[in-house]
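User: Predict structure, ligand zinc ion.
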Amino acid sequence: MPETKKESKITYSPLSLDKASYSTLIIGIFKGKNLDDSAKKANERAGNAISDCLKSGDFKAEYGETRNLFINKGSLKYILLAGLGEEKEYKLEKLNSLIAEISKRLRDSNIGKFGVLLPSFASSGYDEAQIAENVAISAALGLHQFIDFRTKELDKIKNADEVFLLSDKNHDAAISQSRIISNSIVKSRDLANTPPNIANPEYFANYAKELAKKSGLKCAILNKHDIEKLKMGCFLAVAQGSKNEPRLVVLEYNGAGKSDKPVVLVGKGITFDSGGLNIKPYPGMTTMKGDKTGAVIAIHTIEACALLKLPINIVSITPLCENMPDAGSYRPDDILKAYNGMTVEVKNTDAEGRMILADALAYANKYNPKAIIDIATLTGATMVILGSVGTPIMGNDEKLLGKIKEASKASLDKVWELPLWEEYAELLKSEIADIKHLNEEGGAGTIIGGIFLKNFVGNTPWAHLDIASTSWAKMDSGIYAKGSTGVPVRLLIEVLRGWEK
Ligand code: BES
Ligand code: ZN
Ligand code: ZN
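Assistant: Predicted complex:
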C-alpha cells in the first residue's frame, strides 16, 4: 500500500484575528443579510473593508461569487468573501461544494494556510457544529488528490498545509469525528483508484488485514480452497477465469454487547471487470478497476465506525475476484449451485457482480444479522435512472430503507428507492434451473439485479445500494475529483451512527 503523502491538516482554532496563523480568512456572506457578530469583528479588524465592499454593490453575495480583499493586517493578508446566496435557499450541498472549490483554488494559488470563519456560514437552518462537520469534510475532500503513482515533478503538486476552522465555540469533537469520516472517504477513493494490476484480490485482502490491525477489527481471510469448502459455486465460477485467485475477507467490529446482532455490510469486490467471455467493448472496460468499489466502501465504513467507537456490532463481508476471459472462464448457459443450494442459470458473464454477491449474501446470514446492506457497482442502467446524482436503493424492509433515506439527508449522499414488484420476479424464472441471473429481454436492469439478490437474503431485513454511477466521477467538481468519489461511505456511517434512534 503506498504510504500517504502530503495531507492537509484540518484543525479547530479559537477566533483570534490579531494573531492569525493563516494568511487568508474565508467569510461566508448571505445575500441581503446583515453581517453576523464574527464577521463584524473581522470587518473591524479589516478597517471596514468588508462593509465598504458590500456597500459599493461590487459584491452581491450571489451563491458561488467570491471576492478577495487585500487587508494586510499583520499576518492576516486577505479576506475572501464567499457568497452564500439567499439564506432561505441555503443547503449543506451548497456549503460543501463551495468550501471544496475555494479550498482547491487557495491550494493552487500557493496559500499554505487558511482559515474559515465558521459562525459566518451558520444559518437559522443549521447550527455551528453541523457547519463545522461539513466544512471539515468538504475541505478535506476538495483538497484530496490521487497521486500515488506519479513519480515526476512531485514538487509541482501543490497542497494546503493547514486549514483552521475558527470559532469562539470549541468544535474539537466535531472536527475529530469529521477527520475520521473524511479519512475513510479519501482512503476509499485511493483504493478504488488503485489500478487492477496492483489491486488484485490478494492485495486487497492484505490491505484489509492492515486496516483491521490499525483500527482494532477482527479479520478473517478465506482463500480459494476455503471458498471451495464452503461450496460458493457462483463466486468460484466468476473467479475461475483469472490467474489471480479469489479471496473472501470478513471484518468484525464489536462496539455493542455480544448478544447484539450485527449489521452486515456486503460489498462487491470485482478487482477488474472485463466482462469475461461476454467481453466489454471499448470504452466500457476502462474504469472497470472501479468495480471493487462496493467492497472498498464496506471495509472503510466499518473502519470509520470502529474509530468513531459506535455502540453497534458490524460485520463486513467482501468477496474479491477478477472477471476475465480465459479457456477456464465460466460461460453463458452454465448452471451453478449457490451457497444456499439454489441453482442459477448464467446468461451473460458480464452480470458477474450478482453472482459473487449471491454467495456472500447467503453467507451473511451465518452471522444472524439484524440487517444486511449490500453495496455494489451492479448495473450501468443506474446512469439511465438517476444519472450520477443519486444512488438507487432497493430492499425487502421499509423500516431499513426508511433509515437509509433519513440518513441520506444529513450525509448528502442522495438515494432513491426503486420497487421490487412481483412482476419483475417472474422475469427471472428459468425452465432448467431454480432461477436465471438476468432477463434476456432486457428492461429494468437495475431492478432485475435487486430482484435476483433478494433470493439470497432469506427473511433478514436487507437493502441493496447500486452505486454503479455514483461511485465514479467523470470530472473534477465540488467535493469530487475525477475518479472514485468515495460515495456512499458518508451515508453508511450516518445510517450506523443513528441506528438506535
Ligand atoms: N460492473 C458492471 C456495471 C457497471 C457498468 C459499473 C458501468 C460501472 C459502470 C456490471 O458487472 C455489468 O457489467 N453489468 C451489466 C449487466 C448486464 C449484463 C445485465 C450492465 O450493466 O450492462
Ligand atoms: Zn460485469
Ligand atoms: Zn461488474
